[in-house]
Design brief:
The structure holds two protein chains of two kinds. Chain A is an all-beta fold. Chain A contains no helices and eleven strands. In chain A, the strands form two sheets. In chain A, strands 2, 4, 5, 9, 10 and 11 form a six-stranded mixed sheet that branches. A five-stranded antiparallel sheet of chain A has the order 1-3-8-7-6, with no helix packed on it. The model of chain A has no long low-confidence stretch (mean pLDDT 93). By secondary structure, chain B is mostly beta strands. Chain B is built from no helices and eleven strands. In chain B, the strands form two sheets. In chain B, strands 2, 4, 5, 6, 9, 10 and 11 form a seven-stranded mixed sheet that branches. A four-stranded antiparallel sheet of chain B has the order 1-3-8-7, with no helix packed on it. Chain B is globular and about 40 Å long. Classes of the chains: A mainly beta, B mainly beta.
Chain lengths: 110, 116
């Protein structure tokens, strides 16, 4: 099966709404959980990450939560703005590889 | 400080030809990763170098792909002979984390390969 499953594949919200993207992983040894944003035609860039010794981390409108028992971590974006429109990826360890989730296309309409 | 650079930015070749993509990581970064996006948005892992050693090459699709990182600095990814399904965007990323797979990846702009 997949090492990391990401949902939803697409997400459309109105400006000001919240958006939540979830990744479920299988490697119990995972201890690092990053989220990357890729705008159209640009390179992926880290927006937030969390390590396994904490359950939540916030950076302004962005937060990541981790549930190690259930093996999932989520990206939360509050007060969404049109410039948040992009593809978001979670990454997770799979043995000695670092695997991308399949990506979530977030569209924020004004 | 220069970021991760990739060359060429775009390559158009005929089926059966050879192409070599190059990645220069951020100086001092021991970890170097190759990924590719083929059709749509999904980004697939190809391989991971730690210095000059291949830590994990489980994502390499077949023996037409050869990656090297002689001296532990820049890396090359050669596709020989290229097939139509190899078309896509090849991303390189580097990381300075002493614990592989636990630090920020810095990505290059990508090399777009089109095989006709």
């Amino acid at each position: 099966g997949e090492n990391v499953e990401q949902h939803p594949s697409t997400l459309s919200v109105q400006e000001g709404d919240s958006a939540v993207i979830k990744c479920t992983y299988s490697d119990s040894a995972s201890n690092y959980f990053p989220w990357y944003k890729q705008e159209l035609g640009k390179r992926p860039q880290l927006i937030i990450d969390i390590r396994s010794n904490v359950g939540e981390k916030k950076d302004q409108r962005i937060a990541v939560t981790l549930n190690k028992t259930a093996k999932h971590f989520s990206l939360h974006i509050t007060e969404t703005q049109p410039e948040d429109s992009a593809v978001y990826f979670c990454l997770n360890q799979a043995g000695t590889a670092l695997i991308f989730g399949k990506g979530t296309t977030l569209s924020v309409s004004s | 400080e220069a970021g991760v650079t990739q060359f060429p930015s775009h390559s158009v070749i005929e089926k059966g030809q050879t192409v070599t993509l190059r990645c220069d990581p951020i100086s001092g970064h021991d970890n170097l990763y190759w990924y590719r996006r083929v059709m749509g948005k999904e980004i697939k892992f190809l391989l991971h170098f730690v210095k000059e050693s291949k830590q994990d090459e489980s994502g390499m699709p077949n023996n037409r792909f050869l990656a090297e990182r002689t001296g532990g600095t820049y890396s090359t990814l050669k596709v020989q002979p290229a097939e139509l399904e190899d078309s896509g965007v090849y991303f390189c990323a580097s990381s300075d984390s002493s614990a592989p797979n636990t630090g920020e990846l810095f990505f290059g702009e990508g090399s777009r390969l089109t095989v006709l």
